[in-house]
Structures are given as C-alpha cells and as structure tokens.
Amino acid sequence: MLKILILGPKSRYDAYAPDFLSQLPLELAFLEQYSGAEQAAKQNADAQCLLVDAITPVGADLMDLLPQLKMIHSEGVAFNCIDLEAARQRGIYVCHNKGCNAASVAEHTVMLMLMALRHGITGHQAVLEGRQFEMKQAVMVSKAPELGEQTVGLIGFGDIGQATARLLRPFGCQLFYYTAHRRPPQVEAEFGITYLPLQELVARCSVLSLHCAVNDQTRNMIDAPLLEHVHPGAILVNTARGELIDSMAVRQALLDGRLGGIAMDTLYPEPTPADHPLVALPPEVADRAVYSPHLGGNTGGSFARCHRNMWNSVRLILEGQRPNYIVNGL
Fold this sequence. Notes:
Blueprint: E1 2-7, H1 10-15, E2 26-31, H2 37-43, E3 49-52, H3 60-64, E4 71-74, H4 84-89, E5 93-95, H5 102-117, H6 120-128, H7 132-140, E6 151-155, H8 159-168, E7 174-178, H9 185-191, E8 193-195, H10 198-204, E9 207-210, H11 224-227, E10 234-238, H12 247-256, E11 259-264, H13 283-286, E12 289-291, H14 300-318
Parallel strand pairs: 1-2, 1-3, 3-4, 4-5, 6-7, 6-9, 7-8, 9-10, 10-11, 11-12
Helix pairs in contact: 5-8, 6-7
C-alpha cells in the first residue's frame, strides 16, 4: 500500500481520476485548502508521494516532515514553487506534467491576443451601457488591427510556445521566437518561425507572448531596461507565470504609452490582490488591459491529461521504477 498526500481538493481529483486508479493499492489523504500543509504532513508522515497544485509552495521544511517521501508531483506543468535542490538532496523525485496543457494554454493565448486587439472587453462594456453605435463609429475610423497583420514574438518555445505558433500560423502572422537554446533549422521551418535575440525580438514585434518557465534566468526578465526597446504600442500577453515580469516596469510602460496594452492570465502574487499595480490602473490606461484568472490550462482535456500522467508516475513508483518527467536532476 502506497500512501499519497494530496494538497488539493478531492472533488477535482475525483473528477479526473483515470480508469486504472481504482486498481492501484493506494491510501489517499487530502488537504482541501492551501493553508495547513505542515499540519497535514505531520498527520501523514508516512506518505511516500506528495501531489500538489502548481502554485502551492513546497520547501525543505515540509519535506523534512515527510521522511518516507519518494516523489513530489506538480498537478500542472509549472514546478517553480517546489524547492528542487532540497528535494534532490533528499533523493526525492520532482515531476511535472510536461506538455499536458499546451493545447489549452495556446488557445487561451490566442483568445487574449484577439481580445486585446479587437476590443473584447471594452466592446462588451459598450453594449451593456447602450453605447454600441458610438463605439462602433469610433473603431471604424481607428484603423483597428487584425491579428493576421501582427508580428508576434514568442518568448519561450517549448510545448506551449510551439502549440501557440501552430495556432497563429493560419492567421497569417509573421512569427518570431526567442529561447535560451535555439531550435534546429528543421523545427523553425516546420513552424514557419524565425529566431531573434530577445532585445531584437522585443523591438520588432507588435505582440509579445510569454511562454517561459520561471527560474533564476527568467524571473523579472520583462524589466525596465528591456522595455526601453519595446516596439511602440506593443501588446504584452502573459499566459505563463507572473514572476516573469517586473510589474512596476510594465505599469510604467503602459502609462508612458510604450506598451499599447496588456493581456494577463497570470500575475504575481496569486491570489492577485485588487490593488496590484497591473490591476489598479488609472482610468486613462485601464481600458488597455485584459485579464483572466489563470484559466489558461483549466480545461477538462488538460486536467484529464495531467491527472493521467500524474497517476502513471505514481504507478511507476509502486513498481519501483523512475517516474515521468523528472525536473530536479535525479
């Protein structure tokens, strides 16, 4: 019997449990709320696997309360809230659901681009307020952009960046990408995309879309010095992680008019407070912001794929094998 401690709601795990789960010899313990993880660990000190929401912090102190732990598995793709080095030192695998939400996040990314470019929020509000005709007239003379006319820069080109490029290509966008490790020529040809160094990409592209993991090299990568080079009026889209951007620098770029708009699925911290510098914007720029509450990967298909992979890794642990998608070098 393998003991599993789950920091997440039982209802979600029940909804997405794969068919084979009932056949595994498991004992499951749930902590429904994000708080109280240490107490849950003390009460379940014999747990051998820890399954956690991707935004739940897991540090060395929590690991020390679970001396039999063999694996920590993120319920999502991100794993930046888990202390990878502490887990490595203790011989604990840290795993994630690589690629499982790529299609879902890519769809959400394109939706946010379209909402930012095509007055998704302000148009909706105009109809509610009885200003449909006035707004339509204003847009007709504004030379409103089409997505297909944009030069789109994808910052990060892993599973989600590539899925986004695949969706954007039929629109007719000119596509560029930046990543720490340039892809081979055949991959660039497959996606119809061109590599540019980060500063050049930011200067050239009218839509910038973030698809990086958070690490020491990417944290606050969209900062004031980089934004000095931004294409005038560019739209910044973030469906990755809020830690990738310097919020105060992005706010100032909006106020200065260097950024034409933002479309944010993720902000830091989470939960995002109402007085966040990219939420509590002054009236003159507030209508240039589009938000969604970190829904990019939240589809039934995405969760089903994630949970199937996660429980497959649990099954591998039961069988004495290495789990899938280890990210901490073990």
